[in-house]
Specification:
Elements lengths: L9 E7 L3 H8 L2 H7 L12 E5 L5 E10 L3 E6 L3 E11 L2 E9 L13 H24 L1
Length: 140
């Protein structure tokens, strides 16, 4: 892929007052993901195809690409996007969480004929709220 055709990844980082295993359970299980992200039939198995319920956008196809317990998970969302969540144990029951949404192209179009450039801005704002929701969930 040509770098001049690529939009920057969306990156959201937050430190949670929660042990890494608790955060891992919230990102690497169907129940955990449902609590802060979207309903799904996720299984933490590389190659597993699953769907997330994106509400008005319907059931979205995903595939697990990486599992490195308890520090990294990645899945493909739709045809072009990849969601990667990286965890780092900060000690003292604190965990740094970085969510990366990649696969944005300057000329990209979603399956709903919306340009990536427009959707990326909306999704970037959405991830701010979702990462905060993850934090509230694991800190409860």
């Amino acid at each position: 892929m040509e770098t001049e055709n690529v939009l920057p990844d969306i990156r959201q980082t937050q430190v949670f007052k929660a042990p890494i295993q608790k955060v891992w359970a919230a990102i690497a299980t169907s129940e955990g993901l449902s609590s802060w992200f979207m309903p799904n039939d996720f299984e933490p198995i590389v190659g597993h195809s699953f769907k997330i319920d994106a509400g008005a956008f319907g059931m979205q196809p995903c595939v697990v690409k990486e599992i490195e317990a308890p520090t990294r998970i990645a899945f493909q969302w739709g045809k072009e996007w990849t969601i990667t969540i990286e965890l780092e144990d900060q000690g003292d029951n604190q965990t740094a969480c970085t969510l990366i949404h990649s696969g944005w192209r300057v000329d990209g179009m979603t399956e709903f004929n919306m340009p990536h450039s427009m959707v990326r801005d909306t999704m970037s704002k959405g991830w701010v709220g979702l990462v905060a929701k993850l934090g509230s969930f694991v800190e409860a």
